[in-house]
Amino acid sequence: MNAATLPNDDAAFWMPFTANRAFKAQPRMLSAARDMHYFTPEGRAVLDGTAGLWCVNAGHTRRKIVEAIQRQAAEVDFLPAFQLGHPLAFELAQRVAALTPRPLDRVFFTNSGSESVDTALKIALAYHRARGEASRTRLIGRERGYHGVGFGGISVGGIGPNRRPYGPLLPGVDHLRSTHDPSAAFTRGQPTAGAELADDLERLVALHGADTIAAVIVEPLAGSTGVLVPPRGYLERLRAICDRHGVLLIFDEVITGFGRLGAANATSLFGVTPDLICFAKGLTNAAIPMGAVVCSRGIYEAVVDNAPPGIELFHGYTYSAHPLACAAALASLDVYEEEALFERAADLAPHWEAAVHSLAGTRHVVDVRNLGLVAGIELEPRPGEPGARAMETFRAAFDRGLLIRVTGDIIALSPPLIVSREQIDEMIGVLASLLPGVA
Ligand code: PLP
Q1: How many domains does the chain have?
Q2: 280 and 364 belong to one structural domain
């Protein structure tokens, strides 16, 4: 490093979704990780309450995954996935498809959740056009939805600050109402009321005409907005309305895939089968970036079989099905299976639920929501300073050796699925002891 650059050596990195000025005034650095812990450069352990960013489901630097990546890097570092194939990509597609119910069995690889979302939206449009319904171009998202940061994802997404600076976005997009019901605060698991919120789709069908609507995209459990658990019957009702009007249903399972809710994915947990699913994050245990879209065989056949000879879908990424990512994903799926981590998450869920709900009554806490190994702990915002109280809690927890995630004034917890009961108690103990001291 050039000594002349040292005084400014944190200036060049424009950090994503970060308060850059505050961070650079008071940095928090991590430089190593193992299993349930991160380590600061000074060697201080930080318990990971967030599986990184909802993605390190098997815990950190797992040997089997590390070795698979090392081996693959030495064998073939890269090959184009356009008009060429690598055996691991075909093997992985089958393994991913085996985790979703039929007829979902065709897999398109991407490198992130955002790319999975844009890919799913584009496949939905291509499907309708291939079947002679090119008028179906409208995409429906949901208020408070998070679908990454591509233009498609922020268009169907429903989080204001992620959209406002970026102009008119995609045309012809509309949004369902959010499923959040403040009167159901402190509900354990799925709220019993609220299935009828799905009828909002009927309103949009009446408003725009079914023949203009291509697809509806929702997170089965909304994560990044602060953990909103779907009311019982809501997803089933959404499915039925989509069927009635020929609208494709897309589940964005970037967070809920790969065990987070105590099942392989939310699709299996809830028994509601969408037409397309977006995955990323846990697919590779986050060790190498990768995403995937799984779609029904009917969608694949409509697009592929109806196309003239040659390329059927003009879409793909340089790094689609990257060999290192395929190796990381296959090893991750092996670890999930060998250690029965999806079942482990389901076994731990009752302890988790009891632990997070023990925060009811703690100073500032106005709601606790949970499902599987996910929890949202909503704080009363400090008057005139939205988000400040949660951010202060985040900093205090980090200083106490616990990594949490905050969004607005909501704390989101989603530990690796290898978490122990004692570590769950430790996380909740830290929060219970520090929240009363937060202004
Ligand atoms: N969709 C959902 C539901 C997500 O939670 C996320 C990220 O948190 C994304 C999409 C975007 O994924 P990525 O950040 O990998 O682009």
Answers
A1: 2
A2: no
Ligand 1 neighbourhood includes 414 CB (under 6 angstroms): no
**Which of 338, 372, 392 is the last residue before a domain boundary?**
338
Closest approach atom of ligand 1 to CA 114: 16
Backbone φ and ψ for 63, nearest 5 degrees, come out as: -55, -45
Distance 114 CA to ligand 1 centre (A): 6
Kindly state if the Cβ of 152 falls inside 6 Å of ligand 1: no
Confidence at 66, pLDDT banded by 50, 70, 90: very high
Does the CB atom of residue 146 touch ligand 1 within 6 A?
yes
Is the same domain home to 201 and 272? Answer: yes
What residue type is assigned to position 127 of the chain?
A: Y
Regarding whether 274 and 166 lie in a shared domain, the answer is yes
Residue 246's contacts (CB-CB under 8 Å, 6 or more residues apart) are 133, 136, 210
Element (H, E) at 103: none
Ligand 1 site, residue 113, Cβ cutoff 6 A:
yes
Nearest to 352 by CA among 265, 269, 416: 416
Q: Is residue 366 predicted with pLDDT exceeding 50?
A: yes
Answer yes or no: pTM beyond 0.90: yes
Range of 352's domain?
3-58+340-437
**111 Cα to the center of ligand 1, angstroms:** 11
